[in-house]
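Propose amino acids for all 800 sites.
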């Protein structure tokens, strides 16, 4: 008891000064009390008898005094014992009160610590009732702590969560050591993740009181871990190479793409210097500038050449960023790079595509313009002359359309090779586009020298070109030549324009030749542009009209048909010769609208004659090649007939053999569709183009027209009529009518009549004239027609 009191008194901080033994050690309080009592008792027994003898006068008094001594001893020791017991009780009470105070202060301190903790701290009994809970527990459960004590959490969480918590508590009660658990709960903060430590709660005697728990909210930590896993996944799977280096340029970490790009594994790279990748292409100044930028701006980005493990040098796009600690000191550098080798290759390919023709691998128009500009500047400074040649293939379109675009491409490659083989190294050859090439010759002062080169280029194309399809093709070229500064051309545009004009003049002169530019060619080209511009508005302005040239019967001379010929009554100028505007229309898309208008206008005129009760004859309309190949000619014809309610027998379509030979199968299909409408078909200018007798019998034709160039030879050349005879004989063998164009003399008329030509037209009979003139001719022959046949209508039916 004394030892316990001593211990408790020391916890309260009240510490008496105990006696010391002979050795200088401390003597315990019970020993001190016993020693004092022994000393007093011994002293009393030793000295009390002597004192009593001295005080007793006789023996009888001595006995009484002895009894008094005993009583006194009892009283004295009782008093001492009472004092000691009273002091002990007081000391025990003081110690108990101090201990309670200390316990309460310690409990309040522990409670304050628990309430200050962000963790949820609690204790439960075996039934799950809360024995203790800190403030965080109450906050999470949404209940004041004093209301929570003595109750379970069943009314505060879902049944599933309560069952899970009870299960965890039971596991903690039976476990020998506290358990570490992770659980998810719905709290006032929403769904949260907790790391909990739970264990059995026991008293000093080891008796089970319940379970204690400490739960820490690790939601943010888990989210951070998830983000880190995502970043780690991205780090490892990103296509860009990533490396992290320390402040001393030692590689700390690399990702998989780093190894893929550089060839260095993580084991090779980690710990090595970043200089491991240097290619040697950059100077020390380059790297110094990089580090200076990093130091100032904290970031550097640019293209750099590095070296792979196999020694290959490659370009990469590198971004470097500085990582600093809280004090602003550099701790790491993060480098992210992309291998741009493929990009460089693509850039080079795009650069080549932008400046070189992918088919012939010659400089294209853009590069030719740049090179020509540089050449003109150089030769002007040196007072030299530059010559250019624009080369355009003759008949390329026919090859391309008949044999297909692959054959056309192969032909262009062969032509480019042949042209290049005839040029000197100093000459520049390029492809302007389509079937046009350009030659630039620097320092050619003599036109004769340029003419020699042009002849050699034409000669290089004279031999047939064998194609892989098994077909040999023949092409020629027309070359236009211009000089700088001899032709007063100020720059590239003017020089090309002049050579282009000369090239078209070469085509007009018969093709397969070259032509030098002259100043009047430019004026003609400008006039051509003006004609095209005005012609584009002629339809809207109502300036186009049709004249009709009669066709007469070869035997009777009666007018039995007419050809509609286009005329342009240009405002402020008058009638424009057909040779000045029809070729312009045929070379542009204007011919499609104009051609459709001609067919529609011819049908409209027939309708006018019908409504007026005037004589009718079949009207022939010429169709341009571009209009025929457009693919909708049959629809244009059908629409015009339907719109004006004209019977198809009064319309005839004239086509040239050049249109048919381009794509015979498509041509046959188109002709059959037109023929199905009831419209007559005739082949114009027969014998002047690339005739194919094998195909001729397959075309659903009604007539052949002898070209006027053959008609003019009758009587002028010894064998001039031989071709006429052959055409007439061929046509009749194929059961086709024969129409002779360009009949201008009685001799020609009589010869054709003797040979059995079915129809004739030309200036000998009548010139093209407005519709009224044709009706005058028809009206003049009406009496004769009535004498030879019952009615005009029957005559027309017979001719049909």
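Proposal:
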């Amino acid at each position: 008891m004394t030892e316990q009191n001593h211990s408790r008194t020391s916890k309260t901080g009240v510490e008496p000064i105990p006696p010391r033994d002979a050795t200088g050690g401390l003597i315990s309080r019970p020993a001190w009390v016993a020693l004092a009592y022994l000393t007093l008792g011994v002293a009393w027994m030793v000295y009390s008898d002597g004192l009593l003898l001295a005080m007793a006068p006789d023996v009888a008094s001595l006995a009484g005094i002895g009894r008094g001594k005993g009583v006194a001893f009892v009283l004295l020791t009782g008093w001492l014992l009472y004092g000691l017991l009273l002091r002990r009780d007081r000391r025990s009470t003081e110690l108990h009160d101090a201990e309670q105070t200390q316990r309460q202060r310690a409990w309040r301190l522990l409670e304050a610590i628990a309430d200050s903790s962000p963790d949820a701290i609690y204790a439960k009994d075996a039934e799950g009732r809360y024995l203790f809970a800190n403030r965080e527990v109450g906050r999470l459960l949404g209940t004041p702590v004093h209301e929570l004590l003595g109750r379970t959490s069943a009314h505060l969480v879902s049944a599933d969560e309560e069952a899970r918590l009870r299960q965890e508590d039971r596991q903690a009660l039976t476990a020998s050591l506290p358990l570490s658990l992770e659980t998810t709960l719905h709290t006032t903060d929403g769904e949260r993740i907790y790391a909990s430590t739970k264990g059995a709660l026991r008293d000093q005697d080891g008796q089970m009181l319940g379970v204690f728990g400490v739960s820490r909210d690790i939601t943010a930590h888990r989210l951070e871990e998830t983000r880190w896993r995502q970043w780690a996944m991205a780090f490892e799977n990103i296509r860009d190479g990533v490396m992290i280096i320390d402040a001393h340029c030692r590689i700390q970490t690399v990702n998989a793409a780093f190894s893929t790009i550089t060839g260095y594994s993580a084991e090779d790279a980690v710990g090595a210097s970043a200089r491991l990748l240097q290619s040697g292409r950059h100077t020390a100044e380059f790297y110094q500038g990089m580090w200076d930028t990093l130091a100032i701006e904290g970031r550097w980005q640019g293209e750099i050449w590095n070296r792979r493990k196999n020694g290959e040098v490659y370009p990469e796009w590198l971004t470097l960023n500085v990582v600093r600690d809280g004090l602003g000191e550099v701790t790491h550098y993060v480098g992210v790079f992309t291998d741009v080798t493929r990009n460089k290759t693509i850039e080079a390919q795009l650069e080549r595509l932008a400046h070189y023709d992918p088919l012939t691998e010659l400089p294209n128009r853009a590069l030719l313009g740049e090179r020509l500009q540089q050449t003109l500047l150089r030769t002007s400074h040196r007072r030299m002359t530059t010559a250019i040649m624009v080369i355009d293939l003759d008949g390329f379109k026919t090859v391309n359309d008949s044999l297909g675009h692959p054959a056309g491409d192969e032909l262009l490659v062969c032509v480019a090779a042949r042209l290049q083989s005839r040029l000197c190294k100093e000459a520049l050859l390029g492809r302007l586009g389509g079937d046009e090439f350009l030659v630039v010759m620097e320092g050619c002062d003599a036109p004769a020298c340029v003419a020699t080169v042009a002849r050699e280029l034409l000669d290089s194309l004279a031999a047939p070109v064998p194609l892989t399809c098994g077909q040999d093709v023949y092409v020629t070229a027309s070359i236009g030549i211009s000089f700088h500064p001899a032709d007063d051309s100020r720059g590239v545009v003017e020089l090309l324009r002049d050579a282009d004009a000369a090239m078209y003049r070469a085509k007009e002169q018969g093709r397969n030749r070259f032509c030098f530019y002259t100043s009047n060619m430019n004026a003609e080209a400008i006039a051509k542009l003006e004609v095209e511009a005005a012609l584009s508005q002629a339809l809207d302005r109502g300036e186009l009209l049709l004249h009709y040239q009669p066709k007469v019967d070869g035997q009777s001379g009666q007018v039995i048909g007419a050809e509609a010929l286009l005329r342009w009554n240009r405002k402020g100028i008058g009638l424009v010769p057909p040779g000045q505007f029809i070729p312009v229309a045929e070379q542009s898309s204007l011919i499609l609208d104009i051609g459709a208008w001609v067919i529609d206008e011819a049908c409209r005129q027939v309708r006018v004659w019908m409504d007026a009760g005037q004589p009718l004859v079949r009207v022939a309309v010429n169709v341009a090649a571009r209009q025929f190949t457009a693919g909708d000619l049959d629809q244009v014809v059908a629409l015009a007939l339907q719109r004006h309610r004209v019977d198809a027998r009064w319309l005839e379509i004239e086509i040239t053999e050049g249109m048919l030979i381009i794509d015979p199968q498509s041509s046959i299909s188109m002709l059959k569709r037109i023929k199905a409408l009831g419209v007559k078909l005739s082949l114009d200018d027969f014998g002047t183009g690339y005739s194919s007798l094998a195909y001729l019998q397959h075309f659903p034709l009604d007539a052949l027209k002898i070209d006027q160039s053959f008609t003019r030879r009758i009587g002028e050349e010894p064998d001039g009529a031989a071709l006429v005879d052959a055409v007439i004989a061929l046509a009749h063998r194929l059961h086709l009518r024969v129409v002779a164009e360009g009949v201008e003399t009685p001799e020609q008329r009589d010869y054709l009549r003797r040979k059995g030509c079915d129809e004739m037209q030309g200036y000998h009979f009548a010139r093209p004239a407005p519709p009224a003139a044709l009706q005058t001719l028809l009206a003049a022959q009406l009496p004769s027609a009535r004498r030879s046949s019952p009615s005009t209508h029957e005559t027309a039916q017979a001719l049909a």
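Residues 1-26, 784-800 have pLDDT under 50 and may be disordered. The longest helix spans residues 59-116.
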